[in-house]
Amino acid sequence: MDRISKTLVLCLLVAAAFAGTAAAATLVIGSKSLSAGNAGVTSCGVSSLSATRNVNNGGLVTRVDVGAIPLACSGETLTVTLVGASSLSLGSGTGVIGSCGTTCSASITASVTNFGVAVSATNILKFSFAVVGS
Q1: Are 2 and 61 within one domain?
Q2: Are the C-beta atoms of 124 and 84 separated by less than 8 Å?
Q3: Other Cβ atoms closer than 10 A to 24
Q4: Shared domain check, 113 and 72
Q5: Same domain (yes/no): 70, 122
Q6: What is the DSSP string of 26-66?
């Protein structure tokens, strides 16, 4: 009886593995987003970003401005996470990186204003950024 149980369990594991592989084979890679599979991911040229924060009279962060974003990132989504002690996320927000007309030559800026919660400027130790294609 023990041998039959082991054989049955082995057959179930093999069937589950094949089902998982078949399901993964049906996933596709979109033009600007990666759904599944192996593909090279290109950057719009962001190597590093810097930010300044605006604080209201109550000491809460109201806006984070990110500058020196490469022109190639125009139209992409910028995510800013406010990070506190122990690398804890205090809040995050997103904004669409605007386009540049004739006034800028090498880079553009973006602002994020809604972080989901009120965050005290004194608790922020650093910012975390992500630029994601749409």
Answers
A1: no
A2: yes
A3: 10
A4: yes
A5: yes
A6: T----SSS--SS------SS-S--EEEEEE-TTSBEEEEEE
66 and 13 within one domain: no
Domain region containing 103: 50-132
Q: What is the pLDDT of residues 65-105, one digit of tens each?
A: 888 888 888 888 889 999 999 999 999 998 888 876 545 55
Residue 49 makes CB contacts below 8 A (sequence gap 6+) with 66, 67, 68, 69, 129, 131
- The CATH number linked to 97 is 2.40.30
Q: Cα–chain-centroid distance for residue 72? A: 17
- Number of domain units in the chain: 2
pLDDT at 36 over 60: no
Q: Report yes or no on whether pTM surpasses 0.85.
A: no
Amino acid at site 110: A
Q: What is the DSSP letter of 87?
A: G
